[in-house]
Amino acid sequence: MVFNRREFLKTAATASAALALPALGSRAFAADAIKVGALYSQTGGLSVAEKLLANGVMMAVAEINAAGGVLGRPVEVVVEDGASDPKTFSEKASKLILKDKISTVFGCHTSASRKAVLPIFERRGAMLFYQTHYEGFECSRNVVYSGAVPNQQLSNYIPWIVEKLGKKKFFIVGSNYVYPREMAKVSKKLIEAAGAEWVADEYLELGHSEWAVMVSKIKESGADVVLSNVVGDSIIAFYREFKNQGLSQEVLPICATVTSEIEIAAMGAEYAAGSYTSFPYFMSIDTPANKSFIDRFRTFVNDPKAVTYHSLEAAYFQVFLWKQAVEKSGDLSADAIRAGIRGQTYEAPGGKVTTDPDNLHCWLTPRIGQWQADGQSKVVNAYPAPIKPLPYSAYGETESNLFCTSNGLDAAKLKG
Amino acid sequence: MLDILFIGLSLGSILLLVALGLAITYGAMGVINMAHGEMVMIGAYVAVLSGIWLKASLLLAIPLAFVVTALLGLLIERVVVRRLYGRLLDTLLATWGIAILLQQAVRLEFGLSFFGIHVEGLGAGLQNVAVPSYLQGTFRLASADINAYRTFIIAVTAALTLMTWFILYRTSAGMQVRAIIRNPKMAGACGIDVKRVNAMTFAFGSGLAGVAGVMMSGFKTVFPDMGTTMVVDGFMVVVTGGVGSLFGTILSSGLLGEINALVAIGTNDILARAVVFGVVILVILVKPSGLFSFKGR
């Protein structure tokens, strides 16, 4: 592409106009726009993943505005940059709540950033909408969790691996931090309940990508299935090493809880073909609603090859849950949103989702996908209906014995 | 046992691959080149880009990456490093700055992303390189399944090490380099063009890093920050082996690789890494100048 001076000026003018557009928009909407926050990392190591989530939120808001807004008022998003740093997240959360007087923020991706902003939301009485699947063990009245908790990824997965795949010996492997360790805890219970056993529970440093020793251990362990809670770019090196050491997904499949369409695209589909992942949403879900969602997302980000995945879908539908809650209670305060969102149901691209009246997590449909040679999954098993989120399932929480209710966490049960 | 030793050898060869270039720039020239990891990164991106745009295989990317990073190294030496010889801390800061510049350049697609132009293969996202099918999987050797790609890395590392040894010890240019390592002023007094030889040495060290990058791209993820952790490992190897000693670097990378593999097999990877750092600290405490060193400068 060759630029002459005039064209350069034109491009620069368009670019600056584009930058100024959100500001213009807010002025056009006058004083009655409803402000919400979008707090994701726009810079730093996590920005690749988090910008996509921010796009999911922006797209939902754009669609809501195109359809007439909320309570007849347009929605304006105040975007802040968490800069991949939990401390920055907490500063920006304070700014959004105190300076911009915003009561609803969509944001955070890692558990570290969510934990950093949590006290601010609780003290200042604002609501956080959090879309990433996480380890549970949290019961905040100020957070709506739209991603999966361990029981929604594992409760159908492990019995299915044991019964349908006929696997008896699990090798559990993960990155060394809280999410994989909690997932392992829940898995072990389920594995034992299903009458199988686990032969190892091993961890590799977060972000570490030298898998030679681990894969060789898997090979020697006698395990017949690998349960992977590995996160981030380590995933790619793991699947590659797995194939390079001559292990085949047919004999010793990797069953993952984090590996999504994004990682599959980055590693090259041939390395993952035949392996499994458990998620409530897959890009391959064959419904008109999902096809339309993928098309709209690709148009929105202007990338015809963009992929959609669980957290992105959750980032998108949580905005609609918020809209319905606001419209139900007719007020923007955190208390009104909390009251309005309990039991709220929405037809998301991946199917029906419902906010649980007790713990503000979402009812989701567990699905198991097998990765194909084209980088997409084939859904091989799905629950007939969404199941109840149990954030304390690792500690014995069941549907009839809830630890986290609308009154908050029952700490006595946690100890017992 | 054979496969554990093989893994150790493989870990050692990867350490050596990164450290080889450093052994030359840091060891020989006394420049703490923090941008060395970014040279590895650039090499990996050369593999990505040549795969996408030239449809070239990984093998072809090796010489290509060597040339690209060597030229880039030459440029950095001419513009920045040349003015800072003998000022160890200043080179550290300056090359660290260069490292950040290079990372951001790749992330922002050399500024093109500001104009809404996206070059496939650049940018902040994760990239991957297609590996030829004969380098995937394993082959059998004396009752053990040997990882083909890791064997390939070991072979390339051995070839590069031999080439470096040959250049340093069997050519007149190498003799000049070694003279400069011992005493740059005396070498200059004997008629060696110190500036020119230094520039060439720096370019050669950078080129080796570029080849390392191509090899890494085959089994690790390629992204703008990938070099930062590698440069730490590289320095660890060079310091343990003894600054300025090619033999020391080879031996220490093999040693640390095997220790890493043996401890990791016996316990786990996290402990293994701690043990490796422990060994490095011990070596520096007992022999501050590294396992192999000689007096110079």
What does this protein structure show overall?
Chain B: It comes from Rhizobium herbae. Chain B: This is Urea transport system permease protein. Chain B: It is found in: Cell membrane. Chain B: Its main location: membrane. The complex is a heterodimer of chains A (416) and B (297). Chain A has 416 residues and is of the alpha/beta class. Chain A has 2 domains: 23-148 and 289-365, Response regulator (Rossmann fold); 151-283 and 368-415, Rossmann fold (3-Layer(aba) Sandwich). Chain A contains 15 helices and 17 strands. Chain A has helices at 5-28, 47-66, 86-99, 111-124, 150-154, 157-163, 178-193, 212-220, 234-244, 261-267, 269-272, 288-301, 310-329, 334-341, 411-415; strands at residues 34-40, 75-81, 104-107, 127-130, 143-145, 169-175, 197-204, 225-229, 254-256, 276-279, 345-348, 351-355, 362-363, 367-371, 377-382, 404-405, 408-409. In chain A, the strands form 4 sheets. Chain A has a 7-stranded mixed beta sheet with strand order 7-6-8-9-10-14-15. In chain A, helix 9 (234-244) packs across helix 10 (261-267) and helix 13 crosses helix 14 (334-341). The termini of chain A are far apart. Chain B is mostly helical. Chain B has one domain: ABC transporter involved in vitamin B12 uptake, BtuC, CATH 1.10.3470. Helices cover 69% and strands 3% of the residues of chain B. Chain B starts with a helix and ends in an 11-residue tail after the last helix. Chains A and B meet through strand 7, helix 8 and helix 9 of A and helix 1, helix 5, helix 10 and helix 11 of B.
Q: Tell me about the largest β-sheet of chain B.
A: 2 strands, antiparallel
CATH architecture of chain B: Orthogonal Bundle
Structural class of chain A: alpha/beta
Percentage of residues assigned to helices of chain B? 55-70%
* Strand/helix succession of chain B: HHHHEEHHHHHHH
Mean pLDDT figure of chain B: 87
Organism (chain A): Rhizobium herbae
Pfam family, one (chain A): Peripla_BP_5
Keywords (chain A): Signal
Signal peptide (chain A): 1-30
